[in-house]
Amino acid sequence: MTRFAKVKQESTQDLGELDAKYRLGKADEVEYEIKSKKGLTERLVRQISKRKSEPKWMLEMRLAALKRFEEMPIPKWGGDIGAIKFDEIHYYLRPKMKEVRSWDEVPKEVKATFEKIGVPQAEREYLAGVKSQWDSEVIYGSLKKVLAKKGVVFLSMDEGLRQYPDIVRKYFGTVVPLGDNKLAALNTAVWSGGSFVYVPKGVEVDLPLQAYFRINSENAGQFERTLIVVEEGAKVHYVEGCFLAGTMIETGGGRKVIESITKKDKVLTHLGRLRKVNYLQSREYSGGLYRIKYWGDSTEELVLTEEHPILAVRRVLKNERNGSWKRDWLKPGEINVGDYLTIPVDRETRIREIVGFKVKTWSGKNKGYIEVVRDVPCTPEFFRLVGYYLAEGSISSGSYLNFSFSKYEREYIEDVKRLMKKVFGQEKSHESVHKKNNGISVVFSSVELCQIFENFGKKSYLKQIPEWMVHESEDKQRELLVGWYRGDGNYYRKRHSSGLKEVFRINTTSEKLVRQLRTVLLRLGVVSYINARERGDEGRRMMYTLGVSGEWMVKFGEMVGVEVRMKVNDKKRATKFGFDGDYMYVPVRQIRCEQVRRKRVYNFGVDRDESYVAGGVAVHNCSAPAYTSGSLHAAVVEIVVKAGARCQYTTVQNWYKNVFNLVTKRAWVGEGGEMRWIDGNLGCIAENQKLITPDGVVKIEQIKVGQKVLSYDERKERLVFRRVLAKRNSGRQRVYDVSIGARKIRVTRNHPFYSYRYDSTRPKKLGRYELGFVRADELSKAIVPRTSLDYGKEYGLKKPKLRTEFWSGNQHKNGLRVVREQKSRLKIGDRTTGKLMWLFGYWLGDGDMSIKYGVNEKVVRWAKLGFSCPKDNRARERLMGIMSEVVEASPTERKDGVHVSWSSKELVELFVTNGFVGKAIDRRVPGWVWSLPEEQRIAFVSGYIDADGTVKEGRIDIKSVNKTLLEDVASLLVTLGITSRLFTEFSESREVIIQGYKTVAHGSYRLSFEIDGRFERYIAGVLVDKIKQVSPKVKEQKRLVGRSGIKLGGDVEIARVKFEDVGKELPTWDIEVEGTGNFICEGFIVHNSRLTMKYPACILAGKGAKGETLSIAWAGEGQHQDAGAKMIHLAPKTSSRIISKSISKDGGRASYRGMVQMSKGASGAKSKVVCDALILDDKSRSDTYPVNRIWENEVSLEHEATVSKVGEEQLFYLMSRGISEHEAEAMIVNGFLEPVMKEIPFEYAIEMNRLVNLEMEGSVG
C-alpha cells in the first residue's frame, strides 16, 4: 500500500455459546408467528423455502448447501468457534409483524430499540434508504422516492427474490459459492432476510443505504444474505451538485459550455491533468443557487448548486495572505469572502519536434488543388514567430502574410525576417511604410504560409493557439510569450502620490487567447490576472488584458528582457494571489445566494480524479462516497460491481455477548469498476511485465519463490538484488499504463510506486516533503533507476545445420534425394560476444537478406546477407572488420557503392534462427537480448545507433519506419537505466529520398534519449567526437525532491509520469520481496502491495510512512474480545501509533494481541503502542500480549499498558454532585474513550456514543 494513516479496526469477537439471557440488555417482548425447533434438518430447509414461496432452483441450492455444510469440517482460520452448538440454535424466527414503509407503523417495542441507536434520525439526515431486520425477517424498509424513480432497487433479500428472480438467480452464489466454507454453506442453506440492492446503469445513489440487524431471541441464529449489483457506470455518491448551462469547462480541446460536454471529451482536473468524461447528468433543480466572484478574473462568475464541492483554502488571517495552502473540498455555503479558490496548473506535456500543417496546393489541371501536409520544425524560433503573429500578424487576400510594427521597432522587424528565414527558408519580403501612424508592415507573399498561419486565427478577435501548443515544453512557450509581449504588451511604470505603481499588461480582443496564455504563464510559474473592458459605446469589441503584478513581475521581466527590482517603495512586492507550483490561489470577493425553482442544471463524471475546472476553478463532481453498514452472525455479503461502476462498503460493527460474528464478504469488480472496502485493497502488476534477475529478464508470472529480483535499497540508496518470498495470482483486473516517455508499465490503478509527497500543513522545520510510495492513479512524478546493475549471461547461439537434404528431379524420372554436407565457414564461438551483438544491432537498422528456396521443397538453397553501408559511412570500417572475424567469405560491392553483401547460406541462417529476420517495417528485438550481460546489451544498442542514430543537443536520436522496433529498443534501454521518449514524425505514407534513391516511407518515428558514456566503447568514432563536442549537461534537478533539499542517490532520478486507462482487463500478479519490500519492474520501482488483514496491519514500506490503528473493544458477560494490530516497519524514518481501548464488565474479558516489527533498514523508525484497559468490576479481566521484533539498531519503541478500575472515590465525587451511579459510570467510560472517539468519523462517533450509553445492550449491529 502507498501509505497507511488511520486504519479502522473491525474485530471479530470470539464469544461463548448461545444459552443464556442477556444480562445488560434484556430481549424485547416480541410475539413470534413462527419459531423453528432447535437444530438443522432437511425438513426445516424445505419449510423455510416453502413459506417464502421460493422458486425450485433456490430450494435445490439450499439443499445442496446443507449437504456441503454437513460434510465440511469446522474451519480453523480465525478464532476458536468450536464452542458453537449448531444443534441448539433456532434457525428461523418470524415475528408477528410485516415489513412496513412508514416509521410510524413500526411496532412500538421494536421502534424503541432502533430509536436508541438513531435509525429515524439517521434516516432523516443521512440516509437514502433503511432496512431493519429483526431475527430472521426484515420488518421495516424505506427508500427515497427520487431513487425509486431512477430504478434503484432496495429490498429485503426475500422481496428481491420474489420481484426480480432472474437478476437474483444470475448473481446469487456466484461471488461466494455455496461450498466456499462451512459457514457460507450454512448461510446458503438457511438464509433469511438481508438486503438486495440493484443500481441501474449510469444511476447514482445520492445518499447512503444502510441496514440494521438485531438478534432478539436467545439461542437464535441470524443468517441474512446481502446481494448488491451495481450496473455499468452506476455510482454511489453522498451528495450530487450541479452547474447552470453556460458554465465554462476547461477541456483538452479548449473551453466548452457544460451543456455541450460529451463522453468523448477530456477535461482538466484538480490534479492538473486531462481525464476522460465517463458519464453525463442533467436534471431540474430547486433550491439554493450560489454565485461566487473571485479576484484574478473579472469576467468569471461561478454559479452552482448548494451541495457542489469546490476545492478551496480557508483564509488564516483576515488582512494577510496565507503562508500555507491546505486545500479542502468545501460546499459553497462553507466558503467566506477572502477564502481562496484554486486554479490547477495544467501539467500535461507533449513535446513535438515536427508539426504538420494541411495546405492546399495546385497539382495541374487534371487533379486541381490537392491537400498535402507541410512539416514545420517545432522549435522555439517557430513559437516566437507565432507570438509575433498573435500580436501583430494578419492575412490579406489569402496570399499575403503581414506583420505590423512601429517604425521604432526595427529590432523586432529584423527578428521576424530572421525567424522566417530560419524556420521556413523564406528570404523574400517587402516592407510597406505607413507614414500616417508611423508604422511598417513586413509582408511575405506566400499562399502556403498564409494557410499555415490561418491556424492561429485570421482576425484579431479570433486569434488563438492550437491546444498542442498549450502542452509544449517550457522553453518553446517562453518564446511564444516573448513574441506576443513584444507586439501587444507594455510595461506600465508611473509614480503616484501613494508611490510607484508597476504592472506588465498585454492586451487582446480574443478571449480564448488571453485564457490560453494565462494557462501557459502558470505552467511557466508566473501568476497573472484577467480584466475585461467593454467598448460597445465606441463601436469596438471588448478588450481583454492579461496582467502581471506584484512579486510575479520579477520572473516575467526576466522572461521578456525587462529588469524589475525585487522591492518597490522600499517594500517587498506584494500580491493577493498565492501559488505553490501546482495551484494558483485566488481570493473570493463576493458570494450571493438565491433560491431557484426548476432550473436545468448539469454535471458529469470524470475518470479517477472525479473533478474538473468550471468557471476557471477546481470543483468536484461529487463529495465523499457513501457507506452502508454491514451484517451480523453467519452472514454472506456478495457484491457485483459492473464495468465503470463504483461501490463502497464500510462496516461499523458492534457485536455483543453470545453472538459469533462469522461473516463471509466478497466482491466481484468488472472492467473499470471500483470496489472500496474500508479495510484495505490489493494492487497488482499485469502479466508479461518484466523483472530483472541475476540471470536475466523474467516475466512476473514466471518468477519463482526463492529467485532474486532487482530492488532498490532506500537506506543505502542503491540498486540491489533481493529474494522473492511469495508470489500471488490476483485474477483478472482492470489495468492502466504508467509511462515516462517510452518507459511503460501496466498495473492496477492502486499499485504503489516509489515517489514523494508534499504536505503543506506540516511545519517547514519538520519538512513538507517526504519520500514514500504513491498509488498509480495519484502519481504525477516517479523516482526511477537511472543506471543498472550488471546481470545476465551470454546467450547460447542456435547454430545453422550443415547438412541439407532435398529432392531433385533433374535427369531422374522419379527424382533423387540429394544430401549435402558442408564445412562451417563461421568463425564464431557458441555464445554471444560484444562484437557479434554490435553486428546484430547494426543489421536491425541497415541490414537486409536475400533467400532463395528450392523449387520442390522450402529448403534454403542460397542466401546472402547485406548492409546499406557506403564506403564513406562512419561504421564501414567496424562492419568490415567484424564480418571478417565472423565468416570466411568475400564481400560483394554493388556498383553504386552504397551496398555491400556476403553470400553465405550459413550466415543468413545464423541470423534467422536467432530471431533476426524480416523487412525493416516488421523487425523485432529477440526476447533473449534482454537477458544478456550489460556489456553486450550496450554493444547491441550501439550497433543500432551506428546504423540509424544521430547525436543532437546532448541526446541520441534513432529514426525508423518501425514503431514497434523502437518500442523494443526503449524497453531494452530501461534495463540500462536509460529513459527514452518516442515521437511520431508522420504516420501516413510519403515519398522520401534515402541515399539518393526515391522510395515510399510508411511512417517515421524517432526514439530520443540522453547521451550515456557507456555507448562510446562501441559506436563510431565520428559520433564519439560529436558527443564530446555537445558535452551534455548533468541535470541535477532530476535528483532534487521539490524545494526540500532532499537529494536522491546517484542510482535514481525523478521523472514526470503519464497515467492512462488502456481499457483492458488482464491477469494480474504480485510478489513479496525480502528486506526492501520493493522491486524493479519495467524500469519502475514498485512496492509489494499485499496488506495482511488477519489483524488490522500497516506495512510501512516507504521512507517516512506513518500508520495508525484506533480500536475500541467492550467485553460484557460471557464475552472474550480479542483485538489486535500489526505495524511492520520496512523503511527508514517510519512511524506508527496503536491505541487500543478496552472495557470489561460483568465478568467479560478483553485482550490485546499486537506486533511491532522494526526490520533491517528501518533506521530512525518510531512506534508507540498504548493499551489502556478499564475494568468496571471485580469479576472482569484484561490481558495484553505484545510481540516486538527489533532487527535495526537506531529505532525508538514505546509500549504503555495501563489497567484501571472505576474507584469508589471517582463515583462518590460525581454522585455527590447529584449524578446517579449509572450516569457517573457512563461519564467515566466516555472520558476513557474520548481520545479515540474524537478521531473517528462523525457519523460513527454518534452511533458509538449511543451504543456506549446503551451499555452495549441487546444485539444491534
What does this structure look like?
GO terms for molecular function: endonuclease activity. It comes from Candidatus Chazhemtobacterium aquaticus. Pfam families: LAGLIDADG_3, SUFBD_core, SufBD_N. The protein has 1261 residues and is α+β, with helices and mostly antiparallel strands. Among the domains are: 234 residues, no CATH class; 137 residues, Hedgehog/Intein (Hint) domain (Endonuclease - Pi-scei, Chain A, domain 1); 219 residues, Endonuclease I-creI, CATH 3.10.28.10; 216 residues, Homing endonucleases (Endonuclease I-creI, Roll). The chain is built from 25 helices and 76 strands. Strands 13, 16, 17, 18, 19, 20, 21, 34 and 35 form a 9-stranded antiparallel beta sheet that branches. Strands 1-70-72-74-76 form a 5-stranded parallel beta sheet, with helices on one face. Strands 2, 69, 71, 73 and 75 form a 5-stranded mixed beta sheet that branches. Helix 2 packs antiparallel against helix 8. The longest helix is centred in the C-terminal third of the chain and has 17 residues. The chain starts with 5 loop residues before the first strand and ends in an 8-residue tail after the last helix.
